[in-house]
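Standup notes
- DV: blocked on the single-chain target, sequence here:
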Amino acid sequence: MHTNVVRIRKHGDAAVLELDEVQVAAPDATEVQIRQSAIGLNFADIYQRNGAHGPHTPTPFPITLGSVGAGIVTAVGRGGSGIAVGQRVAALYPGAYQVTRNVPADRVVPLPETISEEVAGATLLRGLTAEYLLRRLYVVQPGDWVLVHAAAGGMGVLLSQWARSLGATVIGTVGSEAKRRVALDHGCHHAICYREADFVAEVMALTEGKGVSVVYDAVGKDVFVPSLQCLKPCGMAINYGTASGDVEAFDLQLLHAKSLIVSRPTLRTFIADAASLRRAAQALFSAVESGHLRLEVGQRFALSDVRAAHRSLEGRATTGATVLIP
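- DV (later): unblocked, structure below
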């Protein structure tokens, strides 16, 4: 069987993305074959395309980008995975920019009726990231103050809603008035436009000088060090993305005065085996079913328009989650 795929043959800007065709074999004993109807676009794809260091296994060119997609199982291996042909599933596994693909059965999550394939493809990676950030790495408690950078982005809207449902007071930073409205509509109690105000001063004023319990930072270089000033004693700053560049030459003495904690995590550590992946997905789906979290698609691009999709995400022109439609 032949299928469409988006690959790169060198690292670079969005121009290196190429639409191609590859042969897909029958799934082996440990795999299932999925015909994807929705493929997630995440900032990790940009890092991989650029060749930035990160949690990517070195792979020879050509490289198929992407890590998450959803669709219908079209074939199963003989290993008795418990996944059935015709089942609606999502998969977290490298090489997602491909219409039909084989993935290990232990990287597959069955979808409940309440979660569409499009929503799963667009939001599952972010949703699972939000799950460990809010419930495991730092356990948000009622009464916590939380700072979410890029609060109108794909991750920001999930973190803000879920943190609010856990009893936190949520402060978000955004880059425009339009995005401020999005943030306030998706869980933020307060939204600060960082282009118009000093977010550190605003956060400290809102918290009456006490600071926040945790900072969730997907921006990196531009905001991480100033964010430390927003933390209360023993607070935690979590840098889980680097949209503005890596945090470099970090001085540990910046943590000393208030006994601060910093972390640079990656999702794959928290879903390393099938059981942890399924538990995290169930927690996410339960949050949706209980009304605490809205999983939404902000933008849709055809897979053939993947270059435009990448440019929009890099240019911070997207709001919420983006999905590629084969």
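- Follow-up: The longest strand covers residues 31-41.
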